[in-house]
Amino acid sequence: MMCCANCFGDRGLKKEIIPLRSTQRGTCSYCTTENKELVEPNHLSEYFELLISIYRPDPDGKTLVELLKEDWSLFDHPKMDNAHAKELLGDILDDGELVRKNFIPSELCHTDRLDSWEELRKELMHQNRFFPATKMDLDRFEELLSRLIADQDEIFDVWFRARIQQGDDTYEISEMGAPPQRMASHGRANPAGIPYLYLGSKIHTAISEVRPHPGEKVWVADFNIVSNLKIVDLRDPRKLVSPFLLTDDNEIALLRGDIGFLEKLGNELTTPVLPTAAAIDYIPSQYLCEFIKKCGYKGVIYNSSVSDGVNLALFNPLDGKPKSLRRYSISNVSVEFDGV
Protein backbone atom coordinates (compact mmCIF):
# COMPACT_ATOMS: atom_id res chain seq x y z
CA MET A 1 0.00 0.00 0.00
CA MET A 2 1.34 3.40 -1.03
CA CYS A 3 -0.01 6.90 -0.33
CA CYS A 4 0.49 10.30 -1.99
CA ALA A 5 0.33 13.98 -1.08
CA ASN A 6 -3.23 14.27 -2.42
CA CYS A 7 -4.44 12.05 0.43
CA PHE A 8 -3.53 14.78 2.93
CA GLY A 9 -3.78 18.14 1.16
CA ASP A 10 -0.90 19.54 3.23
CA ARG A 11 1.55 21.94 1.58
CA GLY A 12 4.56 20.75 3.58
CA LEU A 13 3.96 17.12 2.73
CA LYS A 14 3.31 17.96 -0.93
CA LYS A 15 6.18 20.38 -1.55
CA GLU A 16 8.96 19.02 0.64
CA ILE A 17 8.50 15.81 2.60
CA ILE A 18 6.89 13.34 0.21
CA PRO A 19 9.08 14.32 -2.78
CA LEU A 20 12.16 13.60 -0.64
CA ARG A 21 10.79 10.28 0.63
CA SER A 22 9.24 9.02 -2.58
CA THR A 23 10.95 6.36 -4.69
CA GLN A 24 8.30 5.79 -7.35
CA ARG A 25 5.30 7.23 -9.18
CA GLY A 26 2.00 5.56 -9.78
CA THR A 27 -1.59 5.28 -8.59
CA CYS A 28 -2.25 5.97 -4.91
CA SER A 29 -3.66 3.00 -2.99
CA TYR A 30 -5.83 5.23 -0.79
CA CYS A 31 -7.20 8.19 -2.81
CA THR A 32 -6.60 6.48 -6.21
CA THR A 33 -5.00 9.56 -7.76
CA GLU A 34 -2.91 8.53 -10.77
CA ASN A 35 0.68 9.40 -11.66
CA LYS A 36 1.65 10.76 -8.26
CA GLU A 37 4.83 10.49 -6.20
CA LEU A 38 4.20 7.61 -3.81
CA VAL A 39 5.55 6.77 -0.37
CA GLU A 40 4.99 3.94 2.06
CA PRO A 41 2.76 5.20 4.90
CA ASN A 42 5.19 4.17 7.68
CA HIS A 43 7.82 6.46 6.14
CA LEU A 44 5.69 9.37 7.41
CA SER A 45 5.37 8.02 10.95
CA GLU A 46 7.87 10.39 12.59
CA TYR A 47 5.98 13.43 11.29
CA PHE A 48 2.55 12.21 12.39
CA GLU A 49 3.78 10.97 15.76
CA LEU A 50 5.11 14.44 16.51
CA LEU A 51 1.86 16.03 15.37
CA ILE A 52 -0.47 13.84 17.42
CA SER A 53 1.69 14.39 20.51
CA ILE A 54 -0.10 17.74 20.97
CA TYR A 55 -3.34 15.85 21.71
CA ARG A 56 -4.16 13.90 24.87
CA PRO A 57 -6.63 11.04 25.40
CA ASP A 58 -10.11 11.98 26.55
CA PRO A 59 -13.20 9.76 26.27
CA ASP A 60 -15.36 12.83 25.54
CA GLY A 61 -13.09 14.05 22.77
CA LYS A 62 -12.86 13.22 19.07
CA THR A 63 -10.88 10.75 17.03
CA LEU A 64 -7.47 11.78 15.75
CA VAL A 65 -8.78 11.84 12.18
CA GLU A 66 -11.58 14.22 13.16
CA LEU A 67 -9.14 16.49 14.98
CA LEU A 68 -6.61 16.49 12.14
CA LYS A 69 -9.36 17.36 9.67
CA GLU A 70 -10.73 20.18 11.83
CA ASP A 71 -7.43 21.65 13.01
CA TRP A 72 -5.23 21.25 9.92
CA SER A 73 -7.67 20.45 7.05
CA LEU A 74 -5.87 17.14 6.52
CA PHE A 75 -7.38 14.26 4.53
CA ASP A 76 -9.34 16.74 2.39
CA HIS A 77 -9.44 14.57 -0.73
CA PRO A 78 -13.06 13.61 -1.61
CA LYS A 79 -12.24 9.92 -1.25
CA MET A 80 -10.62 10.35 2.16
CA ASP A 81 -13.72 10.09 4.33
CA ASN A 82 -13.25 9.25 8.01
CA ALA A 83 -13.11 5.51 7.38
CA HIS A 84 -10.42 5.74 4.69
CA ALA A 85 -8.50 8.39 6.62
CA LYS A 86 -8.48 6.14 9.71
CA GLU A 87 -7.14 3.30 7.63
CA LEU A 88 -4.31 5.45 6.28
CA LEU A 89 -3.49 6.99 9.66
CA GLY A 90 -3.49 3.53 11.24
CA ASP A 91 -1.03 2.36 8.59
CA ILE A 92 1.18 5.40 9.15
CA LEU A 93 1.29 4.85 12.92
CA ASP A 94 1.17 1.04 12.66
CA ASP A 95 -1.59 1.16 15.29
CA GLY A 96 -5.17 0.49 14.26
CA GLU A 97 -6.46 0.83 17.83
CA LEU A 98 -5.05 4.30 18.47
CA VAL A 99 -7.05 5.83 15.64
CA ARG A 100 -10.29 4.59 17.23
CA LYS A 101 -9.68 6.36 20.56
CA ASN A 102 -10.80 9.89 21.42
CA PHE A 103 -8.51 12.86 22.10
CA ILE A 104 -8.57 16.58 22.85
CA PRO A 105 -5.93 19.27 22.27
CA SER A 106 -3.44 19.58 25.11
CA GLU A 107 -3.10 22.73 27.23
CA LEU A 108 -0.08 23.73 25.12
CA CYS A 109 -2.43 24.55 22.24
CA HIS A 110 -3.97 27.60 23.92
CA THR A 111 -2.85 31.10 22.90
CA ASP A 112 -4.40 34.52 23.51
CA ARG A 113 -3.52 35.93 20.09
CA LEU A 114 -7.15 36.11 18.94
CA ASP A 115 -8.26 37.86 22.14
CA SER A 116 -5.47 40.42 21.76
CA TRP A 117 -6.50 41.11 18.18
CA GLU A 118 -10.13 41.64 19.18
CA GLU A 119 -9.02 44.18 21.81
CA LEU A 120 -6.74 45.95 19.36
CA ARG A 121 -9.33 46.20 16.56
CA LYS A 122 -11.88 47.73 18.97
CA GLU A 123 -9.31 50.25 20.20
CA LEU A 124 -8.26 51.16 16.64
CA MET A 125 -11.86 51.72 15.61
CA HIS A 126 -13.20 53.58 18.61
CA GLN A 127 -10.42 54.78 20.96
CA ASN A 128 -6.85 55.24 19.74
CA ARG A 129 -6.07 55.03 16.06
CA PHE A 130 -2.39 55.89 15.80
CA PHE A 131 -0.99 55.12 19.26
CA PRO A 132 -3.01 52.17 20.62
CA ALA A 133 -2.31 50.92 24.13
CA THR A 134 -3.21 47.30 23.34
CA LYS A 135 -0.05 45.32 22.72
CA MET A 136 0.35 42.69 20.01
CA ASP A 137 3.27 40.31 19.72
CA LEU A 138 4.35 41.70 16.36
CA ASP A 139 7.37 39.41 16.12
CA ARG A 140 5.08 36.37 16.34
CA PHE A 141 2.67 38.05 13.93
CA GLU A 142 5.47 38.45 11.39
CA GLU A 143 6.56 34.85 11.87
CA LEU A 144 3.03 33.62 11.21
CA LEU A 145 2.82 35.67 8.02
CA SER A 146 5.90 33.86 6.72
CA ARG A 147 3.84 30.65 6.74
CA LEU A 148 1.20 32.20 4.48
CA ILE A 149 3.31 33.18 1.48
CA ALA A 150 1.48 32.37 -1.74
CA ASP A 151 3.15 29.80 -3.97
CA GLN A 152 4.07 31.32 -7.31
CA ASP A 153 2.44 28.47 -9.20
CA GLU A 154 -0.85 29.18 -7.43
CA ILE A 155 -1.01 32.89 -8.35
CA PHE A 156 -3.18 33.57 -11.39
CA ASP A 157 -1.46 34.69 -14.59
CA VAL A 158 -4.19 37.21 -15.43
CA TRP A 159 -6.14 39.48 -13.08
CA PHE A 160 -8.95 41.96 -13.76
CA ARG A 161 -9.96 45.46 -12.68
CA ALA A 162 -13.30 47.15 -13.34
CA ARG A 163 -14.58 50.75 -13.42
CA ILE A 164 -18.17 51.92 -13.83
CA GLN A 165 -18.63 54.28 -16.76
CA GLN A 166 -19.73 57.77 -15.72
CA GLY A 167 -22.22 59.22 -18.19
CA ASP A 168 -20.97 59.04 -21.75
CA ASP A 169 -17.31 59.02 -20.74
CA THR A 170 -15.14 56.21 -21.98
CA TYR A 171 -11.88 55.01 -20.49
CA GLU A 172 -8.45 54.50 -21.91
CA ILE A 173 -6.39 51.58 -20.69
CA SER A 174 -4.04 54.05 -18.97
CA GLU A 175 -6.98 55.09 -16.74
CA MET A 176 -7.65 51.59 -15.39
CA GLY A 177 -4.99 51.56 -12.70
CA ALA A 178 -5.17 52.76 -9.10
CA PRO A 179 -6.52 56.28 -8.53
CA PRO A 180 -4.18 59.22 -7.81
CA GLN A 181 -3.22 59.73 -4.16
CA ARG A 182 -5.60 62.62 -3.53
CA MET A 183 -8.51 60.68 -5.02
CA ALA A 184 -7.81 57.39 -3.24
CA SER A 185 -10.64 56.86 -0.75
CA HIS A 186 -10.78 54.32 2.07
CA GLY A 187 -10.56 50.78 0.77
CA ARG A 188 -10.66 47.35 2.29
CA ALA A 189 -6.86 47.29 2.38
CA ASN A 190 -5.74 50.90 1.91
CA PRO A 191 -6.21 54.01 4.07
CA ALA A 192 -7.46 57.14 2.32
CA GLY A 193 -4.72 58.85 0.33
CA ILE A 194 -2.61 55.70 -0.08
CA PRO A 195 -3.68 54.00 -3.32
CA TYR A 196 -3.39 50.24 -3.77
CA LEU A 197 -4.22 48.35 -6.94
CA TYR A 198 -7.23 46.05 -6.40
CA LEU A 199 -7.60 43.15 -8.84
CA GLY A 200 -10.02 40.24 -9.16
CA SER A 201 -9.27 36.71 -10.30
CA LYS A 202 -12.27 36.67 -12.68
CA ILE A 203 -14.08 39.24 -14.80
CA HIS A 204 -17.22 38.53 -12.76
CA THR A 205 -15.27 39.14 -9.53
CA ALA A 206 -13.88 42.47 -10.71
CA ILE A 207 -17.30 43.67 -11.88
CA SER A 208 -19.05 42.48 -8.71
CA GLU A 209 -16.56 44.36 -6.54
CA VAL A 210 -17.57 47.75 -8.01
CA ARG A 211 -21.26 46.93 -7.28
CA PRO A 212 -22.87 48.15 -10.51
CA HIS A 213 -26.59 48.55 -11.16
CA PRO A 214 -28.56 47.10 -14.09
CA GLY A 215 -28.18 49.26 -17.18
CA GLU A 216 -24.76 50.63 -16.24
CA LYS A 217 -21.67 50.16 -18.39
CA VAL A 218 -18.52 48.74 -16.83
CA TRP A 219 -15.02 48.79 -18.28
CA VAL A 220 -12.75 45.85 -17.43
CA ALA A 221 -9.00 45.68 -18.00
CA ASP A 222 -6.94 42.55 -17.71
CA PHE A 223 -3.66 42.85 -15.84
CA ASN A 224 -0.42 40.94 -15.60
CA ILE A 225 1.53 41.32 -12.36
CA VAL A 226 5.27 41.47 -11.87
CA SER A 227 6.67 37.97 -11.49
CA ASN A 228 7.97 36.52 -8.23
CA LEU A 229 6.18 39.01 -5.98
CA LYS A 230 6.16 38.01 -2.32
CA ILE A 231 2.44 37.96 -1.48
CA VAL A 232 0.57 36.90 1.66
CA ASP A 233 -2.35 34.54 1.03
CA LEU A 234 -5.16 34.93 3.59
CA ARG A 235 -7.79 32.87 1.77
CA ASP A 236 -7.52 29.72 3.88
CA PRO A 237 -4.77 29.82 6.54
CA ARG A 238 -5.74 26.42 7.89
CA LYS A 239 -4.82 24.90 4.53
CA LEU A 240 -1.60 26.84 4.06
CA VAL A 241 0.21 26.33 7.37
CA SER A 242 1.91 22.96 7.65
CA PRO A 243 2.65 21.42 11.06
CA PHE A 244 4.94 18.90 9.39
CA LEU A 245 7.60 21.54 8.72
CA LEU A 246 8.06 22.10 12.45
CA THR A 247 10.36 19.92 14.55
CA ASP A 248 9.15 20.69 18.06
CA ASP A 249 5.82 19.72 19.62
CA ASN A 250 5.58 23.03 21.48
CA GLU A 251 5.89 24.93 18.20
CA ILE A 252 3.20 22.76 16.61
CA ALA A 253 0.88 23.29 19.58
CA LEU A 254 1.47 27.04 19.42
CA LEU A 255 0.72 27.09 15.71
CA ARG A 256 -2.47 25.13 16.30
CA GLY A 257 -3.52 27.75 18.85
CA ASP A 258 -2.81 30.60 16.43
CA ILE A 259 -4.75 29.28 13.44
CA GLY A 260 -7.99 30.85 14.67
CA PHE A 261 -6.19 34.19 14.81
CA LEU A 262 -4.97 33.79 11.23
CA GLU A 263 -8.47 32.90 10.04
CA LYS A 264 -9.82 36.01 11.74
CA LEU A 265 -7.30 38.12 9.83
CA GLY A 266 -8.52 36.61 6.57
CA ASN A 267 -12.11 37.36 7.57
CA GLU A 268 -11.19 41.01 8.20
CA LEU A 269 -10.56 41.38 4.47
CA THR A 270 -13.52 39.30 3.32
CA THR A 271 -16.43 40.30 5.58
CA PRO A 272 -18.86 42.59 3.69
CA VAL A 273 -18.88 46.19 4.90
CA LEU A 274 -21.70 48.68 4.33
CA PRO A 275 -20.53 51.71 2.31
CA THR A 276 -21.84 54.08 5.01
CA ALA A 277 -19.63 52.40 7.64
CA ALA A 278 -16.56 51.73 5.49
CA ALA A 279 -14.39 54.53 6.87
CA ILE A 280 -14.49 52.98 10.35
CA ASP A 281 -15.05 49.29 9.68
CA TYR A 282 -12.13 49.08 7.24
CA ILE A 283 -9.64 50.30 9.84
CA PRO A 284 -8.70 46.83 11.23
CA SER A 285 -8.06 45.41 7.75
CA GLN A 286 -6.11 48.53 6.79
CA TYR A 287 -3.94 48.11 9.90
CA LEU A 288 -3.39 44.48 8.98
CA CYS A 289 -2.31 45.34 5.42
CA GLU A 290 -0.04 48.14 6.58
CA PHE A 291 1.76 45.67 8.84
CA ILE A 292 2.00 43.11 6.02
CA LYS A 293 3.52 45.83 3.82
CA LYS A 294 5.93 46.83 6.60
CA CYS A 295 7.16 43.20 6.73
CA GLY A 296 8.28 43.47 3.11
CA TYR A 297 5.40 41.78 1.29
CA LYS A 298 4.08 43.23 -1.96
CA GLY A 299 0.41 42.44 -1.60
CA VAL A 300 -2.28 40.26 -0.11
CA ILE A 301 -4.71 37.74 -1.60
CA TYR A 302 -8.13 37.32 0.02
CA ASN A 303 -11.56 35.89 -0.77
CA SER A 304 -14.12 38.12 -2.42
CA SER A 305 -17.20 38.92 -0.35
CA VAL A 306 -19.41 39.40 -3.42
CA SER A 307 -18.39 36.52 -5.72
CA ASP A 308 -16.78 33.10 -5.72
CA GLY A 309 -13.46 34.54 -6.94
CA VAL A 310 -10.52 35.98 -5.04
CA ASN A 311 -9.02 39.45 -4.84
CA LEU A 312 -5.46 40.73 -4.87
CA ALA A 313 -4.44 44.06 -3.34
CA LEU A 314 -1.04 45.22 -4.59
CA PHE A 315 0.63 47.76 -2.31
CA ASN A 316 2.58 49.23 -5.23
CA PRO A 317 0.14 49.88 -8.10
CA LEU A 318 3.02 49.76 -10.60
CA ASP A 319 3.38 46.02 -9.90
CA GLY A 320 0.33 45.45 -12.11
CA LYS A 321 0.41 46.15 -15.85
CA PRO A 322 -2.85 46.55 -17.85
CA LYS A 323 -2.88 44.72 -21.18
CA SER A 324 -6.31 45.10 -22.79
CA LEU A 325 -9.68 46.74 -22.17
CA ARG A 326 -13.31 45.81 -22.82
CA ARG A 327 -16.72 47.32 -22.01
CA TYR A 328 -19.63 45.33 -20.55
CA SER A 329 -23.31 46.18 -20.06
CA ILE A 330 -24.85 45.12 -16.75
CA SER A 331 -28.07 43.26 -17.49
CA ASN A 332 -28.90 41.92 -14.05
CA VAL A 333 -27.73 42.08 -10.43
CA SER A 334 -28.57 39.21 -8.10
CA VAL A 335 -29.53 39.88 -4.47
CA GLU A 336 -29.45 37.23 -1.74
CA PHE A 337 -30.69 37.71 1.80
CA ASP A 338 -31.20 35.98 5.13
CA GLY A 339 -34.22 36.28 7.38
CA VAL A 340 -33.92 38.42 10.52
Using brief descriptors, characterize the structure shown.
alpha+beta, 2 domains, 4-stranded mixed β-sheet, 3-stranded antiparallel β-sheet, 340 residues, globular
In a few lines, what is going on in this structure?
The protein is α+β, with helices and mostly antiparallel strands and 340 residues long.
Describe this protein's structure:
The chain has 340 residues and is an alpha+beta fold. The protein has 2 domains: 5-105, no CATH class; 115-329, no CATH class. The protein has helices at residues 11-21, 45-52, 64-72, 82-93, 113-126, 138-145, 203-209, 237-240, 249-270, 278-281, 283-294; strands spanning 24-26, 36-38, 55-63, 102-105, 159-164, 197-200, 217-225, 231-233, 299-303, 310-314, 320-329. It has a 4-stranded mixed β-sheet with strand order 6-10-9-8. Strands 5-7-11 form a 3-stranded antiparallel β-sheet. Strands 1-2 form a two-stranded antiparallel ribbon. Strand 9 (299-303) and strand 10 form a beta hairpin. Helix 5 runs parallel beside helix 9. The radius of gyration is 23 Å and the shape is globular. The termini are far apart.
Helical content stands at 25-40%
Radius of gyration: 23 Å
Strand content: 15-25%
Which H/E pattern describes the elements?
Answer: HEEHEHHEHHEEHEEHHHHEEE
**What structural class should be given to the helix and strand makeup?**
alpha+beta
Q: Kindly state the mean pLDDT as a whole number? A: 93
Overall spatial form: globular
Number of strands: 11
Largest sheet: 4 strands, mixed
| Low-confidence runs of at least 5 consecutive residues | none
Main sheet: which strands, in order across? 6-10-9-8
What separation lies between the terminal Cα atoms? 52 Å
Count of individual helical segments: 11
Domain count: the total is 2
